[in-house]
């Protein structure tokens, strides 16, 4: 369905919609904010035709949950329109430094709008304005009509709208945002936020502000002087000379900044307020859309709910009901009863509330008798380093589970206290409970079972409890299915057990009535928490036997399972950051960006917004008449990196300088600016989160923040790494595998000449050049070696003649000749590549050396380009996946090896082929020896594994 068709369908539907009633709450969803959060929350996923859909899936899941939680009748999803806005006319550099969206995200914008239409929701955008302006206008209109408004977003720029009748709601954190939360963030009430932003500026949106004034100082000034204009008029009264002078010198810049951050509440609206209604979608069309994206679990969940409600008969969903004959909302059927049935038959639920040590002792005895104990924790937040342990749930057999409340306060239900006098319910003190559980949780004869147990491990470790041994049902599912499905407990319960779990929103509410788990009444807490432990145990019984049947025991038992406590400890430890160094780098990058922008303007025939792809395209292909300009569907020229790189190779200096500007802008916004905000105030360290079941190859991935993508081949990237520092009295130790993927290519493809070169310790790139081009090593030139190096690394990723030619600056024909000569000389590689692609076509996956299955989507595509992409994945996955497996094996062994050697070194980070440690200064050399020994012995191959170590005060110095 095209965007236009979808828009027409929505317009027709809206024309028949029942108008909203006065006083009905309006929910305005920040669609653009959702898109980027969804994209970065999930790994890259593709639908059967190869189109990336991870953002679409994340957006669909958020939208589904939101609609289920809100049960609202008036909702609109608002997006940013393409092109410049009126703010670019006020300040051309506004948002100019923002890089283009990732290539994998670009095709998903239209699909996300199509998803919104599939849900029959108003999908709004307005050319020349941002989504925030539309949201501001609709909020004003709703308030004037006497209706409350909830803005579904966490965007700080929208916080200026919070006030009487207008609130915000962060759907990912399930957290309402009112005046108190705004004041906590900005130090002023919502009506003063714009003045604070005008002073502090915004490096992400390139709002200049006043140099040297941050949010805290800005808030103090606005509190003292009342508003921006009063402050600027009385700037001469400021006691601090530097601050006084900056306010005087940059007064006009502050006024411009205020105009940039102030939202326009009077834009022309694309739909009347009364048409922003929720309609029952055409379920079959919605299911067809979801199925076309490959969202099997979402379809299964939706169909299950529709069948329970009687809205699907014999697999067909009826069309949307006529609003004229549909029953009123209060006549809706009660929620479906959740059956505890599993494929093995009916399981009777026996859930018990444990509020005394005597009662807990019974459950401990049961665990010792069965040798099994499913464990889950409930907390008041999702940040393990700061979350309060609210309760623990246990299960010893299917259907038999308990919940132990530990930190529940007076419960809240519909705003009323559920306990006499508002007193907390009876519960075991946390310390006493953990002391009672410690022996069984650490008992090697009792297997503890969890789901995503890395989180629970950190909570228990904070209290001195090291839970062992453990099984993790999320990781078992990941080992069995890889990237072929999701591994969340709710999805697995529905797929494997036919069971719909209790939604978190059912017990904690949503929106303004949302509460944290410590305020949940104990009857609801019992049903929800005990179910989690119960389902975890049932999933274990369904999944664990498959490891043997499907020959995946080695992958789980020797690679993924032992890594849980190791990764949990890394996250708890974090890495120390030098905030002052990051701040200095931000200033330096800002200066360089201004210089490069000036150079670009001097190379341009007229001024333009360097951050506007549309304006850049007009400069390059119309004003300068450079070759190769191609317009897309929007009528604008493409100016992505591949286009600019091609122009730069042809000598277009302006294209190269724009590429330089974009690269620096991304480094500034993603790292030097953003990392400062992610330093934990308590520890002075950044605590990243490692996803253990996200990638298709078995690699760990880092999020919040992503510390695995800091560039290491550029001077700027190395400078960023120098902001990662050791504690006083310590050093940072970096140990990484040398050319591990090339070594694996030689071993897996059994390339005799390359294996011998590695055994002889030769320069592998020079050795390759000698073999391919017939040049003796003593006559090797740097240029020839560079070509061999490009082919060596490129061959792992299935590089084409065109790609290699562009990289080496030679014609594609000459590059193809190099590749052909390479494959003829190393004929074993060509044979292995053909064999691997054939295996992928037959089985849908390729294995690593250790047996991990890497799923390959699109390998049987009819479209040649998409099929070729899948074939390149099939070649790369066994190499990258085996390297990941080897690193995991090393990581699992390093802590015990260090402890046995008496070292106090702590593992901080894993970045693909590299491990980073913090170690007391006098122990650094010995720790390096131990780690290198473990890493080099993590696998036995036909070539030697080599690990190289570096020691320094900063990460940059150590690597």
| Count of discrete alpha- or pi-helical segments spanning 4 or more residues | 38
Helix content: 40-55%
- Using the coordinates above, name the CATH class of the domain at 3-12 and 21-275: Alpha Beta
By DSSP, the count of extended strands is 25
Please state the average pLDDT score: 85
In the predicted model, the low-confidence regions spanning at least 5 consecutive residues are 1-22, 313-346, 413-421
CATH topology of the domain at 3-12 and 21-275: Rossmann fold
**CATH architecture assignment of the domain at 3-12 and 21-275:** 3-Layer(aba) Sandwich
Q: Give the overall silhouette.
A: globular
Kindly report the spatial arrangement of strands forming the biggest sheet.
3-2-1-4-5-6
Main features:
Nucleotidyltransferase, domain 5; 25 strands; 38 helices; 959 residues; Rossmann fold; 6-stranded mixed β-sheet; alpha/beta
